[in-house]
Amino acid sequence: MDASFIPIPKIINGGIAGIVGVTCVFPIDLVKTRLQNQQVLPNGKPMYSSLIDCASKTLKNEGFFGMYRGSGVNLLLITPEKAIKLVGNDFFRHILKNDKNKLTLPREVLAGGGAGLFQIVATTPMELLKIQLQDAGRSASVDKTAGAEGAVKPQKLSATKIALDLFREKGILGIYKGFRATMLRDVTFSAMYFPLFAHLNAMGKRREGSDQAVFYHSFISGLSAGCVASFSVTPFDVVKTRLQTLHKGAGEQSYNGIVDCFRKVYMLEGPKAFFKGAFCRVLVIAPLFGIAQTVYYLGIAERLLAAVGYETQ
């Protein structure tokens, strides 16, 4: 990164990166949420047997737009979320450099973890609202069928209604339900992802006249780092998803915090349950960050701002 830290173009690039990435992978994220939330039904079988089964049932019962349930709030809040995450990492890397303008690995981990910590301001309410909308069809089916075949149309929900109801009942803390689990997942993810991405990206071919990697290497680096980090924190993601789900299906377990959730999932569903939706999560996060890092490093905002006469150097 340059010696001078200019945040405006980085913030815009982070926002653009988040919107492009989410639009591409959101249906897989919906499938991931439903797989992570499902518990064994009274008939001894889960509602969905696989990623493909979940996607096909959702598409059949709720239509194409059902696959994008909850995408509105995600697209709205992904701009500040990704901007905070990507710009925060750059900022912390900038201020943590030593006298030789270098970063040690522990400082890289600290910079990434710091970015993950700050992003939960936007991530927690975004994830909370998104999960309710994504999981509505699954939980409604559990309530109606109690393990029988068939599915029902999910209840009408909106992010605005959910947010207002939570705010009236519990104040501002209502929309931050599950923030500790979100922090556990995102700080750990970012502490792993950003140093790994930086080292992989540094190995690639440079763009002509620049110290930045060519776009395809940034994409591959983001993809690879995203695969490793997203799979590694899947147990935290499963716990976060369970804790943030407000409406449980008939007969499904409720949890009283992170430790209680870990304990009940392990005792009732076994250790494999902590990796429910792991493949989906990798399919979501890896391309999401590959796309995000590529857009971020292409410097689209710098070109747009330069076109209107804003100085970015």
From TrEMBL:
Keywords from the UniProt entry: Membrane, Mitochondrion, Mitochondrion inner membrane, Phosphoprotein, Repeat, Symport, Transmembrane, Transmembrane helix, Transport
InterPro entries linked: MCP, MCP_dom_sf, MCP_transmembrane, Mito_Solute_Carrier
Reactions it catalyzes: L-glutamate(in) + H(+)(in) = L-glutamate(out) + H(+)(out)
Intracellular or extracellular location(s): Mitochondrion inner membrane
Residue ranges of the TM segments: 12-31, 213-233, 273-298
Biological processes per GO annotation: malate-aspartate shuttle
Any one GO CC term of the record: mitochondrial inner membrane
Family note: Belongs to the mitochondrial carrier (TC 2.A.29) family.
Protein name: Mitochondrial glutamate carrier 2
Biological source species: Dreissena polymorpha (Zebra mussel)
